[in-house]
Amino acid sequence: MNDTVESTSEPFAEPPEVQERNIWLGARVLAGVTIMFFLSFVFAYFYLRSLNNGGRWRPPGIDPPQTYGYVIVILFALSAGSFAFANQAARRARTWLPLAGAGLLLAIAGCVVQGFEWANLGFSPTKGGYASVFLGWTLLFTVFALLAIYWLEVVVATGLRHRRAREGYVPHGLDAASFYWTLLVVIGAATWVILYLL
Questions:
Q1: How far apart, in Å, are the Cα atoms of 155 and each of 24, 26, 37, 159, 192?
Q2: How many CB atoms lie within 10 A of CB 55?
Q3: Half-sphere exposure of 116 (CA within 13 A, CB side)
C-alpha cells in the first residue's frame, strides 16, 4: 500500500492577491528607503555649496557635459512612460509586452549613455565639492537604476515565457516595478535639475 499522497496544488502556496500585496508592500518600503538615501545627496550638495570652503566648491571648468545630461534624463523619462503605459495596457487585458520591452531597452540605453558621460567628464572627484557630489550621486543613482532594471527585466522575461501558455498573462510585480521605476526616474529628473541646472 502506498502512503504517499500526491496533491495537484502546493499546500503552502499563497493566493495571487496576497503575493501581489506583498510585492506592493516591499515596493513601498523600497521607495521610502530610496528617497531617504538620495536626500543625503541633496543635503550634501546644498551644504557643501553654502560652505564653499576656500572657494573649492566648484572651481572654473568643472561643468558636466549638458548634452549627455539631457539625453540621459530623456531616455529614462521615455522608459518610465513606456512602462507606465505597459502597466495600464496589462490592467485592461491588452498587449503590454512590446511597450515593456521598449521601456527596458530605453532604460538600458540611459545607463550606457551615463557611462559615456563619465568617460568624457574632464574632471575627477578630487576637483572640489561639486565634482565629488556629482560623481558619487550619479554613480549610486546608476547602481539603483541597474538594480531596478534587473527587476523590470525579470518581469518582462516572465511575461515572455508565459505569453503562449496563458493568453493575457501578466506577471506578479509589473505594477509595483513600474511604480518603483517611475519613482526612481523622478528622483533622476530632480538629480538632473540640481546637478546640471542649478
A1: 14, 15, 25, 6, 28
A2: 8
A3: 13
Give the model's pLDDT for residue 168.
74
Structural domain boundaries enclosing 152: 40-197
Q: How sure is the predictor about 8, in pLDDT bands with cuts at 50, 70 and 90?
A: very low
58/65 Cα distance (integer angstroms):
15
End-to-end CA distance of the chain: 79
Q: Are 162 and 12 in contact (CB under 8 A)?
A: no
Burial of 13 (0-12, 13-18, 19+ CB in 10 A): exposed
Q: H/E element holding 177?
A: helix 174-192
For residue 78, tell me if it sits in a domain. yes
CATH number at residue 82: 1.20.120.80
φ, ψ of residue 3 in degrees (nearest 5): -85, -5
Instruction: Read off the pLDDT of residues 121-167 as tens digits, 9 standing for 90 and up.
Output: 999 999 999 999 999 999 999 999 999 999 999 999 999 988 776 66
- The C-alpha cell of 52 is what? 564653499
Percent of the chain predicted with pLDDT > 70? 91
Q: Is the pLDDT of residue 55 over 90?
A: no
Q: Express as a percent the part of the chain with pLDDT over 90.
A: 79
- Residues 195, 148 contacting (CB under 8 angstroms): no
Instruction: Measure the CA–CA gap between 85 and 18, rounded to whole angstroms.
Output: 24
